[in-house]
Write a structure and sequence with these properties.
With about 300 residues, the protein is α/β, with parallel strands linked by helices. The chain has a single domain, classed as Aldolase class I (TIM Barrel). It is about 40% helix and about 20% strand. It contains twelve helices and twelve strands. The protein has an eight-stranded parallel β-sheet.
């Protein structure tokens, strides 16, 4: 049986057991269709010390039906759901600027393609990996097409059964794969996080395991790392009160800074597991421990 200590290389970073946790700032659609806001979010991730930022890419006419796009929905972009979806979608010009800016700032970027045409779009930028979003886990065509590109894949498992996850992993293969535990509610309730699923994923699959969180706190992702998550993904925003569907389940700058700090400090706190008396404790022993006289 193969050892369960697999690693995956994303850009210039090794991801897996024994490596520093790989922290992904999920920008998603929190840029609100504004590339300048996207750049501010990239700056936020860089300042906090994240390893990567992630976006979402959709071909609107392939992902949504004409009926869905025609539904009434008020937004800054118009009065239909289609107006909203198209307004939030970046094209080649915007991604060229994102690619340039991330290289300038020294941070990895990649995206979740929601359809095969979006995979082809992202291939133009030679992204270092692909993310399969939880809603796409059962899209066999997309999974097979992403796998055909031969790049590392990060798979989120929200809204999915054990059997659905096993099927997706079988299609993708365990080599060059990272599987993320996830609950797909925004924001997620504490009683639905079920972080112990990380243990099941680690036992079930011969690949690195991580966590994609939609809760509003920062303790929960740190707990996930203690349980063995080697990747942590969190949505980010400049302000949770901003217009948009994902902002309420995102971390603001201060929260992201604290999360990254706490995750980076974990190896120091956990130590090596060998009980010892530290030199710094000796004066305390001399001061506080009862001295027993010899008879």
């Amino acid at each position: 049986m193969q050892p369960k200590t697999k690693k995956v290389k994303i850009g210039n970073r090794w991801v897996g057991e024994g490596e520093q946790p790989f922290i992904v700032a999920e920008i998603g659609i929190n840029h609100n269709g504004d590339v300048n806001l996207a750049k501010k979010l990239i700056d936020m991730a860089v300042f906090a010390g994240c390893d990567a930022v992630k976006f979402q890419k959709r071909t609107i006419e392939l992902v949504y039906t004409p009926e869905e796009l025609a539904k009434e929905r008020e937004s800054p972009f118009g009065t239909t759901n289609g107006d909203l979806k198209r307004g939030l979608e970046f094209g080649e010009k915007e991604y060229q600027e994102i690619d340039r800016y991330c290289k300038e700032r020294g941070i990895i970027w990649f995206a979740s393609p929601w359809d095969v045409r979006s995979v082809d779009f992202l291939e133009k930028f030679n992204v270092p990996c692909y993310k399969i979003a939880s809603p796409c886990l059962t899209d066999d065509e997309l999974l097979k097409y992403v796998k055909s590109k031969g790049k590392p894949i990060i798979l989120s498992t929200g809204m999915s059964t054990e059997e659905e996850i096993k099927r997706a992993v079988k299609i993708l293969g365990e080599k060059n794969l990272v599987v993320l535990h996830c609950t797909s509610t925004y924001p997620s309730k504490l009683e639905e996080l079920n972080l112990k699923v990380i243990n099941w994923l680690k036992k079930e699959f011969n690949c690195p395991v991580g966590y994609s969180g939609h809760e509003t706190g920062i303790v929960e992702p740190v707990m996930a790392v203690v349980l063995g998550a080697c990747v942590v993904e969190k949505h980010i925003t400049l302000d949770r009160a901003m217009w948009g569907s994902d902002h309420a389940a995102s971390l603001e700058p201060n929260g992201l800074n604290r999360l990254v700090r706490d995750i980076r400090n974990l190896p120091v706190c956990l130590g090596n597991g060998e009980k010892r008396v530290y030199d710094s404790e000796i004066p305390i022993i001399q001061k506080l421990r009862k001295k027993i006289r010899e008879a």
